[in-house]
Amino acid sequence: MHILNFGSLNIDEIYRVAHFVTPGETLSCSHRQILPGGKGLNQSVAASRAGASVIHAGCVGDDGGFLRDTLAENGVEVSYLQTVPAPTGRAVIQVDDQGQNAILHLPGANRCVDAGYVRRVMAGFGPSDWILLQNEISGVGDILEIAAQRGMHVAFNPSPITGELRTLPLETVSCLLVNEIEGAALSGASRPEEMLAILREKYPRSAIVLTLGGEGAYYADGETTVYQEAIPAKAVDTTGAGDVFTGYLLASLAKGARPAEAMYTASVAAALSITKPGACASIPTADEVEAFRKTL
């Protein structure tokens, strides 16, 4: 059993600021870092560090070699990565003194995923495999359709929210992972309990995972509803915490963990990640997560 992550790869430019820049303002920053990132890359590294067998597919430009190296160094299979004649995706990230973030994203090579490439990559996968998707690449509709044809388990994190989401075959998704903003956009509701109920009704074949930051997270499928409280931790940088949660949750579910155990493990990993700066750099290993659990 493998997790195929058809996901984004970005070069992250991270700026430490006293507060987020406002319209018309010129703001000096105290520090800048250039790091590997992208929701896809972060989730692949998290799932791999959680102990899953992960293959990453996606597109980078000639300037994206260190992203390939980052995945490989973290145990992720990279033979399906494609180099294209476009700049690698980039994200400009502001991180304030409270550890909160604001992100500006340029898709770049992430928008070069086409149907032919999707078919070539997915030809070797089948019903025993999971596929993990975000909404930062092109070709999502093709991937969902082919995954359904091949009987794969599909985990979809529809971030960022776009108008085309409503045209996608979301009824084929096995596990739909949304935060409060994404849940509200897809359900039209404002309260978490209402979001869960509406999303379960709209997508009855899907397990719904709703993350609420410091307010915890919910898991709901046709048989089980789980509420997991947020694990307390001192926030240094929250960038990528949701990706850590997703990677650890999927790795746990793919290995057969019950939803309650998978949600707890994912929450512990996400909490530990916010105590360090950076997105990919802050993703904990399974041993670090287990050691942190023993302190709680």
The main sheet comes to:
8 strands, mixed
**Series of H and E elements:** EEEHEEHEEEHEHEEHHEEEHHH
Shape: globular
Poorly predicted sequence stretches spanning 5 or more consecutive residues? none
**Number of helical regions:** 9
Can you count the beta strands? 14
Instruction: Report the portion of residues in β strands.
Output: 15-25%
Mean pLDDT: 94
Instruction: Estimate percent helicity.
Output: 25-40%
Rg, Cα atoms, Å: 18 Å
- Strand order of the main beta sheet, please? 4-1-9-10-11-12-13-14
Straight-line distance between termini:
32 Å
Which class of secondary structure composition applies to the elements? alpha/beta
How would you sum up this structure, described in words?
The protein has 296 residues and is an alpha/beta fold. Helices cover 32% and strands 23% of the residues. It is built from nine helices and 14 strands. The chain has an eight-stranded mixed beta sheet, sandwiched between helices. A four-stranded mixed beta sheet has the order 3-2-7-8. A two-stranded parallel ribbon has the order 5-6. Strand 13 (217-220) and strand 14 (225-228) form a beta hairpin. The longest helix is centred in the C-terminal third of the chain and has 15 residues, at 259-273. The chain is globular and about 50 Å long. 47% of the residues are buried. The model has no long low-confidence stretch (mean pLDDT 94).
